[in-house]
Amino acid sequence: MIIHIAKDRDALGEKSASVVIAEMKRLLAEKGRVVMTVATGASQFEFLKHLTADKTLDWTKVIAFHLDEYVGLPVTHPASFRNYLRERFLAKLPCPIGAFHEVNGENDPAEECGRLNALIAQYEMDICCLGIGENSHIAFNDPPADFETDKPFIVVDLNETCRQQQVNEGWFATTGDVPKQAISMSVKQMMRANMLVNSVPGERKAQAVKWTLEEAISPDYPSTIMRNHPRCHLNLDADSAALVQQEAGT
After folding, report:
1. d(Cα 167, Cα 177) in Å, to the nearest integer?
2. Would you tell me how many other CB atoms lie within 10 Å of the CB of residue 117?
3. What is the pLDDT at residue 240?
4. Residue 200 phi/psi, 5° resolution?
5. Residue 55: its H or E element
6. What are phi and psi for residue 37, nearest 5 degrees?
7. Contact (Cβ atoms closer than 8 angstroms) between residue 67 and residue 39
8. Exposure on the CB side of residue 114, measured as CA atoms within 13 A
9. Total Cβ atoms within 10 A of residue 168
């Protein structure tokens, strides 16, 4: 795992974007196409800002998948991840993307997983961009996460810590407003990507970062699985690295 500690959130986002852009340029030159996964949430704001600011990438040769979405949440809801990515990612690109496969939480969950699983099976995943939740989740795989399923997209239950995080970040007024289920990319599917790029800013993520680096690899701490990935970048800021700075260095 390659760990980088940036001075602040913006520098963290810039670092993550620089890693992804460099890999995308390499892949476009060598293969002529990039297949990637993009994430949402407050942790991705600065990363997406810097990623979409680059005007040299040919996005017409990019196929992107979406990590997760709440079950039953309308796209018009402020917390909708589809809406988030339309506004913060797709609308900011300098040219149309080749293909973007959204997770539609308003569809029947089983049917939507089947649709997405058939789509993603056609590709080798080059880059997976993601974050880490306060409870150590990756995508919406809350602890204890399913490390065994081979299905690329699954329906998951959201635990109380995860739902409270959504309130803390301002997406919902109360935990009662947060859906209890989501459609999420599975742990195995994320680990299939040839590169993982994590953007994990903020003091509220410090404990999760410590678990990620120090706990035994276990479904009880889902993010620990990333230590098994051969090309995993963990980009932190001073706040999220506060409990591990001495061990990780800069």
Report:
1. 9
2. 16
3. 95
4. -135, 80
5. none
6. -120, 135
7. yes
8. 5
9. 13
Residue type for position 114: G
The per-residue pLDDT for 248 is 44
CA separation for the pair 231, 214 (Å, rounded): 18
Which pLDDT value is given to residue 173?
A: 80
Dihedral, 248, 139, 195, 21 alpha carbons, nearest 10: -90
Q: Assign residue 43 a region (left: φ > 0; alpha: ψ between -120 and 50; beta: otherwise).
A: alpha
DSSP code of residue 1 = -
Instruction: Name which of 197, 198, 201 is nearest 8 in CA terms.
Output: 201
Residue 245's pLDDT is 65
pLDDT < 70: residue spans in the chain: 245-250
Residue 237 structure tokens: 């800021």
The reported pLDDT for the residue numbered 172 is: 80
Sort 62 into a burial class: Cβ within 10 Å, 0-12 / 13-18 / 19+. buried
- State both tokens at 164: 């409270």
Do residues 38 and 99 make contact, with C-beta atoms less than 8 angstroms apart? no
DSSP state of 24: H
Extract the tokens encoding 24. Answer: 């995308």
Q: What domains are there in the chain, each with its CATH number?
A: 2-156+184-244 (3.40.50.1360)
Strands 195-200 and 232-237: parallel
Beta strand 127-130 with 195-200 is: parallel
Strand-pairing partners, residue 64, are 36, 100
Tell whether pTM > 0.85: yes
